[in-house]
Amino acid sequence: MELFYYVVFGAMAAVVAALELGGKSNKDRFTTSQAFNSFKNNYILVYSLMMAGDWLQGPYVYYLYSTYGFSKGDIGQLFIAGFGSSMLFGTIVGSLADKQGRKRACITYCITYILSCITKHSPQYKILMVGRILGGIATSLLFSAFESWLVAEHFKRGFESQWLSLTFSKAIFVGNGLVAIIAGLFGNFLVDSLNLGPVSPFDAAACFLAIGMAVILSTWSENYGDPSESKDLLTQFKGAAVAIASDEKIALLGAIQSLFEGSMYTFVFLWTPALSPNDEDIPHGFIFATFMLASMLGSSFAARLMAKNSPKVESYMQIVFVVSSASLLLPILTTFLVPPSNVEGGGISFAGSIQLLGFCTFEACVGVFWPSIMKMRSQYIPEEARSTIMNFFRIPLNIFVCIVLYNVNAFPITVMFGMCSIFLFVASILQRRLAAIAEKPKAQDWVAMKERDTEADPLNAP
């Protein structure tokens, strides 16, 4: 493997180590309690096990389907089914968490994803399709129920609101960074070193999910959003829509999240052909680990930013979105500024090396984004419908990803990157607007909205 990869990886590892080990007292400026530290560590353990179950599967889903003999079109339909399921069924199941309980929703995630892993043993297309549908439901729960449980439990136990940023940043650092790297290496060990086949990472994922479920069952207490017996699912959806429409901050937050995550998921599909347009021999696993290290760097940097009163998260995220937009312009710029190589195979090109540095920058922005968006959601989304609103945010995201998957071969790769760059720049504009109105009081609080709905529809009154 070329020295370039080791230099990039080593440089970022050194920066991450410096951020984590050096000046730690500055990062953790406020003093926390022992009870909070135990609570935080318990959540990070569970979150890491959940993410291990997810990260182990990612690199091998496409590969497993291809070993079963399915075409690219068939595999594309399976992926579309997963995102479509997340949008339709996942939104419904995720929204039930507010009424039926967030702990139960987290347990449902474990069971659903374990069942999805089991279906991977079958080469039958219909069974694999069922697995993708179950996986889509699980994904919605992963990105709503756990965060909703954490925020509600944090305040129920009387912890300081600013301590939430510590849990968010550390969970992303460990779960989306360190665990992702270890999961990638462990999956590679199972498949290549032990020759257990491409289904073995899914079996390992099921084991981690089962362990995490056992920890949840034994250590977590239940919490709810609005457990009112008279409130059916349709009323919950209506209330969430009213909350988004009535509070510009919530609407802006949803749009920002959809724009960024849509660009992020599109990037997942595009980085391989961008770095190897002529079938260059690139170390996919090592590059993936490098991206995850860049994400760790971003989350570590975010922890230092959120521990301070200035700049506020609404302000510095404007810069993060602009930087991420610029980083995804590099594939377009290198197309015009760097002479293309027509040599098949070989190592990574000069243009590819420049793009790799830009992609690492984008992944660092992803690392800043996750804990920061969690922090903003905890501030602006009403507790009574947290899971419901968070799943509403994922609807446009899933629609967008389905469209991209369906048309992935219809546009040149530069057009796709240009589209993502524009979306990220729009996100920075919306973030600027959010920062401008962040200090304004809400137009209506949740109680007032519920009272208005009750007056408009007395049949739903308790």
Automatic annotation (TrEMBL):
SUPFAM superfamilies: MFS general substrate transporter. It is a multi-pass membrane protein. GO terms for biological process: monoatomic ion transport. One of its GO terms (molecular function) is molybdate ion transmembrane transporter activity. InterPro entries: MFS_trans_sf, MOT2/MFSD5. Pfam families: MFS_5. The chain crosses the membrane at residues 6-23, 44-63, 75-97, 130-151, 171-190, 202-220, 286-307, 319-338, 350-370, 391-407, 413-430. It is found in: Cell membrane. This is Molybdate-anion transporter.
